[in-house]
Design a protein that fits this description.
The complex is a heterodimer. By secondary structure, chain A is α+β, with helices and mostly antiparallel strands. Chain A is built from ten helices and 20 strands. In chain A, strands 14, 15, 16, 18, 19 and 20 form a six-stranded antiparallel sheet that branches. The model of chain A has no long low-confidence stretch (mean pLDDT 89). Chain B is built from one helix and nine strands, in the order βββββββββα. The chains are: A alpha+beta, B mainly beta.
């Protein structure tokens, strides 16, 4: 990254950090201060939940309470519920729960500033808000992670050069890559949070709500609001309804147990039209905690939430497994274990190499995945287009619907390709001994299995390749990203020995003895680089058709 | 700071299974607490370098002497290889601890004591120069 890029990055960092520090820092320090205050008994004189506008579109539900307490032999009164500038939140259930806990006449506890006893709160401030202070750090860290890791690598190389580190101690391939650790943490944290909030949480709440009782409720507010987000307009249903339970009024804002990120805007808009403020509705109330209520018991978990959380969790687990594997290899790879790892185990008995998975199975798998992706994508696209026709931009359903539809089309093309292969026979290769030795010969047998067993021409090659896992850095939307890819090009193929080249009508089975020259490189498996061998089979039912299959083979060096 | 030298008794070209013998000497103050002689291969090229220590000889009381002889039997592989994406080389290195001063000698391990060079892009002279 050039100096201009770094300058922009720091301006972005301070541009984000300073406003967040000014907004959250004051509330955070006030909350921290309240943890040094004295806990004293108090009496609640009155408590209620009131609505206060936070912004033109957002309303906060605030606990309005009055309480008296005795401190240092003197009686005091306060109306402050908690520390900080804002006393409430958008969560009406949370406010109702606090108000129910602080019933008038009931003894309770409050926290009093010992240096100024007039200052007291019923609830100490929440400290988790400090996490938002790290948000700019996290965002800048993610954007610039590639530059940060590159800087650490350059520093390590400089240190190595300055200290003249022995070559045998510079095992770069077996060092844990910080990028892998970062991606593993990100994937796991995001997957667990998304899965927990959008999948596990709703199922858990739904499973524990079978005994909730039906009660009459009145809708107080039902409105679809929108605000401009980072990636376009974002819609939310502003809903509150009130109900009576045990002679006391309560309010709730929960429609159902779902927390889907892809709830269609068109459906929400239709719901608000059908349920105007003042209309009555049936609510389901938790008999054990009447502050908890929903309007619908049904559980709808969206496909975007399930697939995104599964993908993130799967990605995080894969990256974590890679880190563990590298650590394990670093501890284990020396001496005989190292020779076994890089040369492989020798097999003297014959081996059979089959096409796995068979093309028909691959075609079926792709077709099933295409149906699932197509159905999900079609559903989301239809909802997104419906919202568009109403003048609303349901970006999540439009984007994910388009993504899933493209994936479905790609899967269909793959399924068709596999199906085309599945219509014809496929080879089974036998190799004796199972691990051919350089400088010796081995027997290669072949036969064709499956439908339409007709082979008019056949070519078999033994090919040797070099492979290297190379990290490539590319410019991404949110900064540079890198990916490690296995490289193997035609220029890295160092040998292609034709074993069979025949045009005949009876090539359905056969065998050939193959001699491997003494100066041929054997198979080698390294952590980041390898020398690999394959048997490539090309064939066709006529000269116009060409089908190709590859089978990996291990060539061992001769025993000394 | 320690000063180390490493000598191999024969030419630095070996076939698998052959014995590699040599002598490592060290000097300087303070005397090293431990001296390691390592037989290893390492990869270089497009991917990150990997080091595989195949055998080692540890001198635990190097203060009592100034040199050690070592002998390694070379394994069946991997062979020295010079490709376009991957290059695999063998070496013997002596390392003194805790200073980590070191001396290294490159060797070739392959059939007929030759490195496998499938693309024939490097001259044999280059291999000899590498050993110097």
């Amino acid at each position: 990254m050039g100096s201009r890029g770094k300058w922009v990055l720091w301006v972005c960092f301070f541009g984000m950090f300073v406003p967040i520090l000014m907004t959250l820092g004051v509330d955070f320090f006030a909350a921290v201060r309240s943890y040094t205050w004295k806990k004293v008994p108090c009496t609640i004189l009155r408590s209620a939940v009131a609505e206060e506008p936070f912004s033109p579109t957002v309303t906060h539900h605030v606990v309005k309470a009055e309480y008296s307490y005795n401190f240092g032999g003197r009686e005091y009164k306060s109306t402050r519920f908690t520390t900080g500038k804002h006393q409430g939140s958008t969560d009406v259930t949370k406010a109702e729960q606090a108000a129910a806990r602080l019933a008038p006449g009931r003894p309770s506890t409050c926290y009093v500033n010992p240096h100024n006893p007039n200052e007291a709160v019923l609830q100490r401030g929440e400290l988790w808000g400090v996490l938002f202070l790290f948000a700019p750090l996290l965002i800048v860290g993610l954007i610039a992670h590639e530059d940060i890791f590159a800087w650490f690598e350059r520093r390590e190389w400089r240190r190595r050069k300055a200290e003249h580190l022995p070559l045998s101690e510079t095992n770069d391939a077996l060092q844990t890559d910080g990028r892998l650790v970062l991606m593993a943490i990100l994937g796991l944290v995001m997957g667990i949070f998304l899965g927990g909030f959008c999948v596990v949480g709703p199922i858990w709440r739904w499973a524990h709500a079978h005994d909730w009782v039906e009660t009459d409720a009145v809708i107080n507010r039902s409105e679809l609001t929108s605000h401009s987000g980072m990636h376009g307009p974002q819609y939310s249903l502003e809903l509150t309804y009130s109900y009576q339970q045990g002679g006391r009024p309560y309010r709730s804002d929960r429609r159902n147990f779902n927390q889907s990120i892809e709830e269609p805007v068109a459906d929400l808009a239709a719901w608000t039209v059908a349920h105007q403020p003042g209309s009555s509705i049936r609510a389901l109330v938790n008999p054990r905690d009447p502050t908890e209520a929903v309007l619908y018991r049904d559980l709808k978990i969206g496909w975007v939430s399930v697939s995104l959380s599964s993908l993130m969790l799967g990605f995080g687990l894969a990256m974590a497994a890679k880190c563990v594997q590298i650590h394990w290899l670093r501890k284990r790879l020396s001496g005989a274990a190292l020779v076994d790892y890089c040369l492989g185990k020798r097999r003297h008995d014959p081996i059979r190499l089959r096409v796995f998975p068979p093309p028909l199975l691959s075609a079926t798998g792709c077709a099933v995945a295409a149906v699932i992706a197509g159905t999900a994508g079609g559903w989301s696209l239809q909802k997104g287009i419906r919202a568009l026709l109403n003048g609303q931009g349901d970006l999540i359903n439009l984007l994910y619907g388009a993504g899933a539809s493209i994936a479905a089309v790609w899967l269909v093309t793959r399924a068709l390709k596999f199906l085309e292969k599945a219509r014809y026979c496929r080879p089974v290769v036998g190799i004796t001994p199972g691990t051919p030795v350089v400088g010796e010969s081995f027997k290669l047998e072949w036969r064709f299995v499956g439908p339409r067993p007709k082979v008019e021409w056949l070519r078999i090659f033994l090919e040797g390749f070099e492979e290297a896992k190379v990290r490539h850095v590319t410019a991404g939307y949110h900064g540079a990203i890198s990916e490690e890819k296995k490289e193997r090009s035609m220029c890295s193929m160092f040998m292609s020995q034709p074993l069979v080249q025949e045009i005949d009508e009876s090539l359905l089975y056969g065998n050939v003895n193959v001699s491997i020259p003494e100066d041929t490189m054997h198979s080698f498996t390294g952590v980041k680089s390898a020398v690999a061998w394959e048997v490539r089979i090309e064939f066709g039912k006529d000269t116009k058709q060409k089908l190709e299959y590859r089978f990996p083979v291990r060539l061992a060096p001769p025993k000394p | 700071m320690n000063s180390l030298t490493l000598e191999i008794n024969e030419q630095p070209f070996y076939s698998p299974g052959e014995k590699l013998t040599g002598k490592a000497t060290w000097s300087g103050d303070p005397s090293p607490e431990r001296v390691d002689v390592r037989l290893f291969w390492f990869t270089s090229g497009a991917a990150l370098s990997q080091v595989g220590i195949v055998n080692r000889c540890v001198v635990k009381n190097p203060k009592d002497r100034r040199s050690t002889s070592f002998e390694f039997t070379l394994p069946e592989g991997p062979w020295s290889f010079a490709g376009r994406l991957v290059t695999l080389r063998w070496a013997v290195e002596v390392v003194a601890f805790p200073s980590r001063a070191s001396a290294i000698r490159m060797i070739t391990l392959g059939p007929d004591r030759r490195r496998i060079n499938p693309f024939r892009e490097e001259e044999t002279e280059a291999e000899s120069q590498e050993h110097q």
